[in-house]
Amino acid sequence: MNESATAEHGERPSGVRVRRGGCNCGAVRFELRGDPTRVGVCHCLECRKATGAVSMAYADWPLSAFTRHGETREYLGRSFCTRCGSRLFHLKPDEVEILLGALDDAPSDLVPTREGWIRRRERWLAPLRDAEQAWEDPH
Ligand SMILES: [Zn+2]
Ligand SMILES: [Zn+2]
């Protein structure tokens, strides 16, 4: 593989996978190096309200793997673009939770292995195959 081909697939010559994302208007951009520590879907009321969607798909990375630029505001840790309002990520003390829909790759290559708050899952949604099912918070 030559260097341009590697770059196209989101990799650097070092071999570390890089994923990029941002908001709808482009004012906020971010980058993640390496693979996430967990990938999941949450159906809890807070995730529903925060996204306006019936569930939230997310992936967590260590904070050290995360860089970003552009102006955001936060509500209870959940960030959004001040210009277009797109939801982006949730900054925690030592990790960052990225909303899968904020990644540039659609579909992404990430597959949830845990599904939380299934008691709030819409009746028309099927359980995710091979994902741990948690009635409320997954452990
Ligand atoms: Zn924006
Ligand atoms: Zn939730």
Description:
This protein is mainly beta and 139 residues long. It has one domain (21-133): glutathione-dependent formaldehyde- activating enzyme (gfa). It is built from two helices and eleven strands, in the order αβββαββββββββ. It has helices at residues 3-8, 45-51, and strands at residues 18-22, 29-33, 38-42, 56-62, 66-69, 72-75, 78-81, 87-91, 95-99, 114-116, 132-133. It has an eight-stranded mixed sheet. It has a three-stranded antiparallel sheet with strand order 1-2-5, with no helix packed on it. β6 (72-75) and β7 (78-81) form a beta hairpin. The longest helix is centred in the middle third of the chain and has 7 residues, at 45-51. The protein is globular and about 40 Å long. The protein starts with a helix and ends in a 6-residue tail after the last strand. The structure holds zinc ion (2 copies).
Which labels suit this protein?
139 residues; glutathione-dependent formaldehyde- activating enzyme (gfa); three-stranded antiparallel sheet; mainly beta; eight-stranded mixed sheet; binds zinc ion
* Biggest sheet, spatial arrangement of strands: 6-7-8-9-4-3-10-11
CATH architecture: Alpha-Beta Complex
- On the 0 to 100 scale, the average pLDDT is 92
Small-molecule binders here are:
zinc ion
CATH topology: glutathione-dependent formaldehyde- activating enzyme (gfa)
The share of residues in extended strands comes to: 35-45%
Distance between the termini: 40 Å
CATH class division = Alpha Beta
Question: What is the radius of gyration?
Answer: 16 Å
The secondary-structure element order is HEEEHEEEEEEEE
Count of extended strands: 11
How many individual domains? Answer: 1
- The amount of helix comes to under 10%
Give the name of the CATH superfamily. glutathione-dependent formaldehyde- activating enzyme (gfa)
Q: Treating each run of at least 4 consecutive H or I residues as one helix, how many helices?
A: 2
